[in-house]
Amino acid sequence: MISERFEKGSKKLAEVDGQVGEEVVAPLGDLGKYIVEFAFGDIYSRDGLSLRDREIATIAMLASRSGVEPQLKVHIKAGMNVGLTTEEIEEIIIQTVPYSGFPTAINALNALKEIVVE
């Protein structure tokens, strides 16, 4: 049985990521279900921030961490889907340098460049 949280989360996921979101979470089984319900049904569906603002925060957090480039790429695409430009995403990445260092920013910028080339 599909829960109300899952339905709400699925709609929000599609709004943020389009078809790509479903393709990312579907193979994850129960973990994917939890992502849809919690991250998108509960968190992304809250009032207070636009989807654009939420993706700015998400990209900044992921850009400041090592080893999460696959998830960063998903959210770079999502950011573009909700209205961020390549230039804005690059600025978000540059903003992480004083707090997270050059290595993570370099990795994030490389992820952005890979997305732009696609």
Q: How many discrete domains?
A: 2
> Structural class of the secondary elements?
mainly alpha
> Number of helical segments?
7
The best one-word shape is globular
Low-confidence stretches: none
Q: Name the average pLDDT.
A: 95
Q: Which CATH-level-2 architecture of the largest domain?
A: Up-down Bundle
Largest sheet: none
H/E element string? Answer: HHHHHHH
In CATH, the homologous superfamily of the largest domain goes by the name AhpD-like
The termini sit apart by 37 Å
* CATH fold description of the largest domain: AhpD-like
* Alpha-carbon Rg, integer: 14 Å
> What percentage of the residues does DSSP assign to strands (E)?
under 5%
CATH class of the largest domain: Mainly Alpha
Count the E strands. 0
- Give the fraction of residues assigned to helices: over 70%
Short description:
The protein is an all-alpha fold and 118 residues long. The protein has seven helices and no strands. The chain has helices spanning 4-17, 19-25, 30-43, 51-63, 69-81, 86-100, 102-117.
How does this model look, in words?
The chain has 118 residues and is an all-alpha fold. It is 78% helix and 0% strand. The chain has 2 domains: 1-46, no CATH class; 48-118, Up-down Bundle (AhpD-like). The protein has helices at 4-17, 19-25, 30-43, 51-63, 69-81, 86-100, 102-117. It starts with a helix and ends with a helix.
Architecture blueprint of SSEs:
Elements: H1 4-17, H2 19-25, H3 30-43, H4 51-63, H5 69-81, H6 86-100, H7 102-117
Characteristic key phrases:
globular; mainly alpha; 2 domains; AhpD-like; 0% strand
